[in-house]
Amino acid sequence: MKKIFVSYRRIDSSYIAAIINEKLKHNFGSDAVYFDIDTIPLGTDFRKNISDAVGECDILLALIGDEWVSVADEQGNQRLSDPADTVRIEIESALARNIPVIPVLVGEAKMPTITEIPSSLQDLSFRNAAEVRAGHDLDQHLSRLISGIKSILEPEESKKKQTILQASSEKETDSFETHHLTQETPKNSKNTKRMIYIILLLLLAAGVSYIYLNQIQEKTVIQQNKNEHERIQSEKLKAKEIQRAKEKEEQIKKEELRRKNLKIAREKAERKKIEDEKNKRAKEKEKQIKKEELKRLNLEIARAKAERKKVEAEKIQRKKDNSKVAQTNFKINRWYHPKSEPKSLYIANITVNNKNKTYRIYCPTEMVRDITNGNWDESRTATDEDKKKFSGNFIVRRTMRRICD
Question: Which residues 6+ apart lie within 8 Å of 362 measured at CB?
Fold first, then answer.
């Protein structure tokens, strides 16, 4: 028995491949068709198994769909360029054995050029192709394909059948003429013709019924395959939609995570900025405090120095006053605080060169006023009073120091 090998890619021609498989089995028998090789033993070289399977066949149908050339693997590389591609191995094995290889164009596919396929498959571009397109002409395309396969697989048998049919026809004609000539009565001849017509009508009715039932069966198979193909496509579409939904959800989760991380990073940067500013202000404040402390310390030191200098100057001045007072006849007779006057105001009575003087002395401002005999003089400082009244001798100042200190 001669066998037919069907090579196809599931991704672009599984639907039409199933229809072609059913048509081939109907015309050549189930055992005459290799459709799917799913029984390769584990651990064996699948290339050898495919080559052996192709080697048992007499003809190979290479179904070429829309994505037959462009289909790629997971890495994005053309699958035909891979020496381990099963479709490539199947066609290479058939071309190497030099058996008939029929390209079958399905869908909207066109014959691939030699630049689109590997060098080992370039002979395929020069093979005469058949077309099996889905649509109103599908039955005609399938019939032409079956006729073409039969003309390749059964050329001698077709001739023998023609010869036998021709000889049988001639024999039947001779037999009919002989029988007709040897009929004894017209009545028997009439009955014979009637029987022949009835038999022919029955045969014609049987043939029409067979063809009609066959067409119904083929249409049923085609519809079933079409429904199966639509179901598979629907499942693929649903799977793609689910995959896209998962990818979209994953993308949303990634975006949310990215935003969350960005927010955390911003908050962390903001906290760090606030902390840095706080530390900076604390350092500046500490620096300012130290500066103020240093300034206050320096001021206190300066004040202490000035105070010491003042004390030293007063000591020197006292010495000078004492020396000047010693040269003048001076005596403090008495002093008191008037009850109706401020606490720091005193009335002092002194004797200078045998003359009595009475003064109002206000310690905080070091201002004095001569009120001798009730005559109120102008208010002056103790130094100015000494210059005016006592020729610069420290009489009033000495009195003020003694009372106020």
Answer: 342, 344, 345, 368
